[in-house]
Amino acid sequence: MAAPIPADAALPRRLRRYILGALAAALVLAAGYCFGYEPPYRGTLVERPPRPLIFAHRGFGDHGPDNSLYAVERALRAGMDGVDLDGQLTRDSELVVFHDLSVDRLTSGVGRVRDKTRDEMLALDLGPKYDPAIHGAYVHAFEDFVGVVQGHGILMVELKVPGLAATGIEQRAVDIIRRHNAYRDVVLSSFNPLVLYRVKRLDPRVRTAFIFMNTNWNPKLLAEIKEGDKVDLPWVVRQEFIRRALRKVIRPDLLSVNQAVDHAVITRLIAKGWPVFIWTPEEDQELRWALSERPYGVISDRPIRAKQLRDQ
pTM to 2 decimals? Predict the structure, then answer.
């Protein structure tokens, strides 16, 4: 028979059990807060519009060359509230606006954006591949778009990076926004939460948008992701409970949510006060649903139709 535990030894052992139990309970509560609880939105940099904003996807890409000033100027003349564009760094660390990671599909050039200099990129004409009658719709630097949009609409630019490591793209974008005092005119967006975290560390006044979707394998999404431009999102970033925790850390000002995300999730985020953009509804039924959710905005390849439905 085992010897009885002395009374003076039983108390510390019992105390250790209590302490371990308390720590386990604290961990469960912390995990519940991080992964389960969604606090109400408390951002202060975003003003609520009286009705959903309508943004032209890819800078009015169905009415002009993709991500071109040519298209953006037409979007603004058509009364769009803003445009959605894509920004990438060149080999010499300059920020240019271009959608694909490779220039092959949209221009007569070949190769990756990050392997070309700023001057090489700006010499590429986006017009002929879109319409043989259009010439002179050259690739432009991000700063050129800021000057055109400022005071006339909002520029939402997705910062594209090849991986998780810092590239300096955030610093470039923030410097340009500061130089033009374009805090109210530009939103920096990304699928990559580290990019948004770094932007806020550089300047908390810059507005950010966290882009997310559920899966890479939705057929409508794959139709947009051309050869040489496929970027797989890690499984972990595609889970809502992980995104919920990330939102608490990176504190984006807006969310840009693909329409394929569970509609209950979108409804809940809007109910929590989050300024949500829904992308990219195209068919009338999709547009009507998106607008009925009363989001902050809708990003569409058919922004003129979206505006018509909103204004009915």
Answer: 0.83
Instruction: Set out the domains of the chain in order of their start, with CATH numbers.
Output: 48-311 (3.20.20.190)
Torsion on CA atoms 264, 33, 191, 232, rounded to nearest 10: -80
CA–CA gap between residue 62 and residue 71 (Å, rounded):
8
Angle (CA) 15-21-24 rounded to 5° is 145
pLDDT tens string 218-263:
444 434 444 334 444 555 555 666 777 788 888 999 999 999 998 9
